[in-house]
Amino acid sequence: MDPSMSDSDVAWLRSRQPFASLDSSKFPRSTPLEGVLKNDCRLRRYQAGELIVREGDYGNSAFLVLAGQTRLMIDSLRQEQMGRETPPQKTWAGALAEYLFPSRYPESRSIAAVRPTKNGKSSVHHIDDHTALFLQDVDAVLSENQSVRLGPGELFGEVAAMYRSPRTATVLAETESALLEIRWQGLKLLRNDPGFAEQMDQHYRSQWLPLHLREVPLLRHLPDDRMIKVVAATQLRSFGRLAWNTEYRKSRKLSPKQQIESEPLVIQQGGLPTDLIIVRAGFGRLCQPHGDGFRTTAYLGKGQVFALEELAYNATRPETAPPRPIQNQLRAVGFLDTLHIPAEVFATEILPFVRRSELPADVGRQMLRDDGTGASGAGDEALDRRRQPRRDNEPSSRLPVVTDHRAQRLDSTSMLEFVVQERLNNGRQAMVIDLDRCTRCDDCVKACAATHDGNPRFARTGLRHDQFQFVNACMHCTDPVCMIGCPTGAILRDEATGVIQIHEPICVGCKTCANACPYDAIEMVEIVDRAGRPYLDQQNEKPIGKAVKCDLCISQPGGPACVSACPHDALVRIDLSETSELQTLMRERRE
Fold first, then answer.
1. pLDDT in tens, 95-147
2. What would the pLDDT profile of 135-181 be if each residue is shown by its tens digit?
3. In this structure, are 465 and 545 located in the same domain?
4. Is 194 in the same domain as 312?
5. Which residue ranges in the chain fall short of pLDDT 50?
6. Which residues form the 4Fe-4S ferredoxin-type domain (predicted)?
7. What are phi and psi of 356, to 5 degrees?
8. Which of 174, 199, 224 is the last residue of a domain?
């Protein structure tokens, strides 16, 4: 992680907490404690006012304060304070003028769109070997917002690093500070020490697990006393590799059978269910043996559950009826992080509060017969309260919670396997073209170019299956690996819309996002002024490059220009993280 990390640095770290208390004998010879510190950590120094992490960023590392004082902001800072500004919404007149009178030069910008903002907001500086974003007027910000001081020995950011989730708070350096950055691989290895592992588990279980369970529609309105028991019984497990994108280009070349066989097996088909499994991060594949291979029946994403049908049936079945075994295998697609709730805890603490409509039909009828009231169940009282617009980090209430493969199976098993094999199920706004309707007029590309400074954000090319083409355009992914490692936080997800966009004024053209995107949906371009002259970097006098990609026309009043411009309704944007939308598209286009 840091080639300059020396043996003397490691020895110094071993003299400080928590490393001084770790038991070296608990680490294998292949990965000793000293090796973890040397290979998976790096020393970072921050100046007063420098932003360390920003709320909403994705990261793959945690931070341990070694010296100095930092502040964790309880109140959310404004986007402009973190160097980000929401693009102004264009009027219809402005959008029309942009279309009728495009710039003469592709990727031309005003100076305000190229240089980072200053004037009491934030500014970008180059310090030593890294790019730093500074918050101006720190004292005023701290006096106006609630914050918590984090001093030497305190760790933060480990939940976002270990579970691939956005940062929940902004942390800045109050004074000149020294921190140790520990990437997620190192955090995982440090858990070889039982004391360190227990400390991390207890912190997660007390601070974050109740929140993550509440995000699941099935448990959102569970009484607090029942939730306490569920939290205590829940087990945390992970399968596959968190850095799945590094293996993506290799695994996609395998045959479906080989790819499925290479995926970690979570639960085997045919046995009795012992846990309700909740997907916390990543994707799982549901499949069944078929001939000499497998048949994919569905896939699961964040917030969805596995074995609900079987557990609910077994808990309510008549004594004379045999228990229902697991109907599908569950395998990790790249990476899968799960929560496991024991069957007996589900039956006693959760099932009485689940709405009948969320259960299989035969289970719901059996529960009605058991209570004899014909009532809809305790959980149904919360039905109206659940019909609220979801935030970006919440699982949709439309996500299927019943894992009956018959209800989720697509029209074509081969299409489903194609989507999973190419990891297209990661896309929340995938661009799909029905080639049976497309006349190759390229109006979609022209409209995109007219909206984005003369340079379209996609080409009408991409993977094809049956009559559908999945275009090489940003899909605004569920797991946006492009957002990991951006030094200034220029690439971010809009909380209200879920759109991933790049704030160009603080983009330094480092290519981190473009190199990380497994779908090649981000490109680097040189920016010019209105006269076609390239902007030059003030330090090295080289042309300034910026990362660009599809922003879903977030500032346009009519939404995505590519969709609006298609004269034949051939182009759509759909959420491939849910099987239902793809199933609906296939059914509509084949009728």
1. 777 777 777 888 888 887 776 554 444 567 766 666 788 887 888 999 999 99
2. 878 889 999 999 999 999 999 999 888 888 889 999 999 999 999 99
3. yes
4. no
5. 118-121, 373-410
6. 429-448, 498-527
7. -60, -35
8. 199
Backbone angles phi, psi at 304, to 5 degrees: -85, 160
Residues 258 and 397 reside in one and the same domain: yes
Angle, helix 579-590 to helix 413-421, in steps of 10 degrees: 130
For residue 139, the tally of other CB atoms under 10 A from its CB is 9
- Record the tokens describing residue 583, joined without a space: 């199933």
Q: Cis link prior to 18 (omega < 30° from 0)?
A: yes
What distances in angstroms separate CA 497 from CA 245, 422, 493, 494, one per listed residue? 24, 25, 8, 6
How far apart (Å, rounded) are the C-alpha atoms in residues 333 and 223?
33
pTM over 0.85: no
HSE at residue 35, side-chain half, CA atoms within 13 A, is 9
Three-state DSSP at 100 gives helix
Is the Cα torsion angle 120, 123, 125, 131 positive or negative in sign?
Answer: positive
Query: What is the DSSP secondary-structure string of 519-537?
Result: T---EEEE-B-TTSPBPB-
Cβ-contact 219, 381 below 8 angstroms: no
Q: Which of 291, 323, 294, 292 is nearest to 307 (CA)?
A: 323
Q: How many domains does the chain have?
A: 3
Buried b (16+ CB within 10 A) or exposed e, 420-459: bbbbbbbbbbbbbbbeeebeeeebbbebbbbbbbeebbbe
What is the extent of the structural domain holding 293?
211-408
| Residue with the two structure tokens 């979609």 | 444
Query: Tokens standing for 141?
Result: 């910000």
Extract the runs of DSSP E, i.e. beta strands, from 319-434.
329-342, 430-434
Q: Are 354 and 309 in contact (CB under 8 A)?
A: no
422 contact partners, CB below 8 Å, separation of at least 6: 252, 463, 470
- Are both 280 and 226 inside the same structural domain? yes
- 3-state class percentages of the chain: helix first, strand second, coil last, to nearest 5: 35, 25, 45
Sign of CA dihedral 137, 143, 147, 151: positive
Q: How far apart are CA 148 and CA 186, in angstroms?
A: 26
What's phi and psi for 360, nearest 5 deg? -55, 150
Residue with tokens 């990891």: 423
Q: What's the alpha-carbon Rg for the chain, to the nearest Å?
A: 26
In the 8-state DSSP scheme, what is residue 58? B
Do residues 187 and 161 lie in contact, with contact meaning Cβ atoms separated by under 8 Å?
yes
CB 103 within 8 A of CB 531: no
Show the DSSP H helices in 150-298 as ranges. Answer: 158-163, 184-190, 194-207, 209-214, 224-233, 245-251, 256-262
Q: Vertex 125, ends 120 and 131: CA angle to 5°? A: 130
